[in-house]
Amino acid sequence: MLMYNGSILIYTKEAAEAQNRYFGWGDDKPRPENLVEQGGWILGFLDTACPHPVRALATRFLPATGCKGSPAYLEWPAEENIRLQREYYRIRDEEVPAEKRGSFKILGWVHSHPGPLGVFISGTDHENILLHFNDHNKFSVVLNPQRKIIRAFLGPEHPEVPLIMELPIRADRMERKAGERAVAALTASERKKNRRQRARRRRKRFERRRRRGRR
Ligand SMILES: [Zn+2]
């Protein structure tokens, strides 16, 4: 159940594209790599001004290439977490402007439930959250690249929260603009038609009055 209390996870176009590429989101041909579970971390900016609701902007996706996946299980070794952690510090110190470093965080983890599987927090996922992401502001994103379902869950109790990617938002905006243009064009032609009708009525009224005056 989607619980909207104001918390939200937004992906930049770049982070969304990197994640989609790694998981083979919506690929036409099934690939052996994404028919097993895969995972990664998301990094980005946390609105640290207030702890509730949790608002985050994911700007980077880090693939957990050192994990071994099977169709229904993901083996995630401790060394892989250490590697990802190092990568996080490197990106923060080398790529994030100094004044923004304080709010650049590890936002959470992402993993896939491939093939026919649904997208939810399993018992194993719950244990993983308690072990590694036991924090009210860490996200757990679960996706199925073949069925094209993606959901975000928040914190150790993991209620579902809205997840927005800048890709669809942008397309949505474009559609909305096109829609607005179409509506504007329609009202313009409608106005022109109305103007013509009013002019015709005025002419008729004038004609009638003139005829009456003659009588
Ligand atoms: Zn899972």
Give your account of this protein's structure.
By secondary structure, this protein is an alpha/beta fold. It folds into 2 domains: 154 residues, Cytidine Deaminase, domain 2 (3-Layer(aba) Sandwich); 38 residues. The chain has 4 helices and 10 strands. The strands form 2 sheets. The protein has an 8-stranded mixed beta sheet. The longest helix has 49 residues. It is elongated, with a radius of gyration of 27 Å. Zinc ion binds next to loops.
Strand order of the largest sheet: 9-8-7-6-2-3-1-10
Rg value: 27 Å
What is the oligomer described by this structure?
single chain
- In percent terms, what proportion of residues is strand? 15-25%
What structural class do the secondary elements suggest?
alpha/beta
CATH homologous superfamily of the largest domain, by name? Cytidine Deaminase, domain 2
The CATH C-level name of the largest domain is Alpha Beta
Order of helices and strands: EHEEEEHEHEEEEH
Number of folding domains? 2
Q: Given the C-alpha coordinates, what overall shape results?
A: elongated
Which ligands, by name, code or SMILES, are bound?
zinc ion
Number of helices: 4
CATH architecture of the largest domain: 3-Layer(aba) Sandwich
Cα-to-Cα separation, first versus last residue? 78 Å
Largest sheet: 8 strands, mixed
Query: What average pLDDT do the residues reach?
Result: 87
Percent helix among the residues? 40-55%
The CATH topology annotation of the largest domain reads as: Cytidine Deaminase, domain 2
Low-confidence stretches: none
List how many beta strands DSSP finds.
10
